[in-house]
Design brief:
By secondary structure, the protein is mostly helical. It has one domain. The chain starts with 10 loop residues before the first helix and ends in a 15-residue tail after the last helix. Helix 4 runs antiparallel to helix 5, helix 5 packs antiparallel against helix 6 and helix 6 runs antiparallel to helix 7. It has ten helices and no strands.
């Protein structure tokens, strides 16, 4: 299997993205990122591991993994499903038209569901934030990870509050498999979702 993580040492993430240190909330060393993710998975709070994954993967792969999580966690209404489908379309064909369609749905839905938030993650993954006919306005490099982290936490919170940590742990188990080259679906196989 091929490791999908774009860094060779975990601390390169916080060196690359200033906001990552605060969002991940744990100090990262120079060990391989997949090793760090496995360690974070053993902690009581799964939130740092989810945040770590959002920053560690390349943008398209991170959103792909996030789509897997949102699909498995469930609970999306029709609008959320449409925004998630637009995001999945961008993952399959990451061109500007698909990116802008995801962004259009996110804005139209006013970010009121996890599908709209992950659609915004796709929109801010590159290109321009301005309409196509205007001068290019590039997004900040950490926006995709921030939106993705918000989308996954939002989706996990759609269940019973007491289930949120377990739902996030399944996302982390999925991340470990996905980052290590797997399909990321292992935690949900045979369980009918989260």
């Amino acid at each position: 299997m091929t490791n999908r993580i774009r860094f060779t040492a975990a601390n390169q993430i916080t060196e690359t993205f200033e906001s990552a240190a605060e969002i991940i909330g744990v100090e990262l060393g120079d060990e391989p990122p997949l090793e760090t993710l496995r360690k974070l998975h053993t902690e009581e709070d799964p939130t740092p591991a989810v945040a770590f994954t959002c920053f560690a993967l390349p943008k398209r792969e991170a959103i792909w993994w996030g789509c897997l999580c949102l699909r498995a966690l469930g609970g999306l209404d029709r609008d959320g499903q449409a925004a998630l489908a637009a995001t999945e379309a961008w993952v399959r064909k990451p061109d500007d038209a698909e990116r802008r369609e995801a962004g259009r749905l996110a804005l139209e839905q006013e970010f009121e569901n996890p599908g709209a938030v992950i659609a915004q993650a796709a929109f801010v993954s590159g290109g321009s934030l301005a309409p196509a006919e205007f001068e290019k306005v590039p997004p900040q490099q950490d926006l995709t990870a921030k939106c993705l982290f918000g989308a996954i936490r939002f989706a996990a919170a759609l269940g019973e509050p007491v289930e949120i940590p377990d739902r996030l742990r399944k996302c982390v188990a999925s991340a470990i498999d996905f980052c290590d080259g797997g399909d990321g679906q292992g935690p949900w196989k045979g369980s009918g979702g989260a």
